[in-house]
Amino acid sequence: MLSERVRGLKDGVFGEATRFSGVFLYVWVILALFALHKKVVLPQADLVEDQVFAFVNAFILAKVMFVAERFRLAENLQGRPFIYPILYKSLIFSLLLVCFSLVEEIAVGFLKGRPIGESLARVAGGSLVAICLIAVILFFVLMPLFALREFAREMGKDKVFELFFGRRQKRKSVGS
Predict the structure, then answer these.
(1) Cα torsion for 160, 163, 165, 168, to the nearest 10°?
(2) Once rounded to an integer, what is the mean pLDDT over residues 64-84?
(3) Cys bridge to 32: 54, 72, 75, 174, which one at CB 3.0-4.6 A?
(4) pTM
């Protein structure tokens, strides 16, 4: 009985760690690409520092996403077409990512003695239009993540994993 509990706990922890790792890696790639883009657009940007912040922000955002799941974010959209929770979660988390970026730059600027305006200029050049554009890009980039998670919730994680990573059987073509 105790060994079953330990095994169940171990399976639960492993499952959560696997889910967390997937979300973390996805968000980290997104943020790392934005940091790389920032280095190209703003040559004075520090690529190493921005990549470290991308890593830390991805970890924090992945954790925030898991906490939000515990609060049953978009639960009222269950039973509706998949597009509703996908769009809703993409919107919420793209805004959250932008807010984290703004707060992060202000905090780092504060520690380095920079004024707020100068710190905000490091986020997409400081322009409101550019910041909104980043939010829109994030909105669309997060859609596949939430789409995959909604499909996994509906079809079962094992089935989705098998579809992506399992061996596929060759199907006969129509007319053969």
Answers:
(1) 160
(2) 79
(3) 54
(4) 0.71
